[in-house]
Design goal:
5-stranded parallel beta sheet; 2-enoyl-CoA Hydratase, Chain A, domain 1; binds octanoyl-coenzyme A; 4-stranded mixed beta sheet; alpha/beta; 9 strands; about 240 residues
Length: about 240
């Protein structure tokens, strides 16, 4: 089990992403580890997505390093040979949703206050093609097309209806249920399951691997635009105002 614990909101900073990728790599290379449950140690929040401060007012070199770390995390998680189960015990916007979508199975706490989705459009930014591909592979073209354009965040019950999560359970039962699902998936021979998983995901993974440098350049160019920087600053302001 892996429990995210980066207060206050488990935002995916460069340090967080690097540590997450290293942990995944270690588990991947550990023959005794066949599966991982991903959850959060922070009440009400699974992960608030990419750390917006890493994308605001930084150098081109920093943007490149940050984006490579985001790619690395996704390549490892989406391409993992392990069984991956997301136990989503709180809000899961944008990058948080990507982590859940990259797992083999998603269980969410049955709380309509917790929402999940790729809300990039609401921030005035665009979910990269591989976020989109991962989303389409879970919910299908039509739901993804609408959800991405509107940047929708769905409360848990709606997320279940759309197939964005596989199951809802009362929060206190979340980990118990995740363990039961894990046992069910681990009952199969690894080899057959792994080849099947790879068959389903390979095209999407290969696409990023083939265009990784281009994707970094695209990100730097996009995020460096003054209009995009302005949108992000306004969004951060909005988050702060909402509090007072
Ligand atoms: N990055 C950095 N800081 C954040 C983030 C974040 N993603 N989310 C929250 N924070 C900060 C807040 O600004 C606040 O800071 P401070 O205490 O200094 O005011 C602190 O964390 C606590 O936040 P809240 O008061 O809002 O905490 P709540 O418990 O009320 O709410 C939520 C938690 C629901 C997670 C809420 O903070 C929220 O909605 N956050 C924004 C989530 C979001 O929209 N994330 C999207 C990030 S973008 C992304 O992941 C993909 C980008 C792809 C880029 C592609 C470009 C080409």
């Amino acid at each position: 089990m892996m429990k995210f614990k980066s207060p206050p909101v488990n935002s995916l900073s460069l340090d967080f992403l690097t540590e997450f990728s290293i942990s995944l790599e270690k588990l991947e290379n550990d023959r005794a580890c066949r599966g991982v449950i991903i959850t959060s140690a922070i009440p009400k929040i699974f992960s608030s997505g990419l750390d917006i401060t890493e994308m605001c007012g930084k150098s081109v070199e920093h943007y490149a390093e940050f984006w490579r770390a985001v790619q690395e995390m996704w390549l490892r998680l989406y391409g993992s040979n392990m069984v991956t189960v997301a136990a989503v015990n709180g809000a899961s916007p944008a990058g948080g949703c990507l982590i859940a979508l990259s797992c083999d199975y998603r269980i969410m706490a049955e709380n309509p206050k917790f929402s999940i989705g790729l809300n990039e459009a609401q921030l005035g930014i665009v979910a990269p093609f591989w976020f989109k591909d991962t989303f389409v592979n879970v919910v299908g073209q039509r739901i993804a097309e609408r959800a991405l354009q509107l940047g929708s965040l769905y409360p848990a019950p709606e997320a279940l209806k759309l197939g964005l999560v596989d199951e809802l359970v009362p929060e206190e039962k979340l980990l118990e249920k995740a363990s039961a699902v894990m046992a069910q998936w681990l009952a199969l021979p690894d080899h057959a399951r792994q080849i099947t998983k790879s068959m389903m995901r390979k095209a999407v993974l290969d696409r990023l691997v083939a265009h990784r440098e281009e994707d970094i350049k695209y990100f730097i160019n996009f995020i460096s635009k003054e209009s995009i920087q302005k949108s992000l600053r306004m969004y951060m302001e909005m988050l702060k105002k909402k509090k007072s």
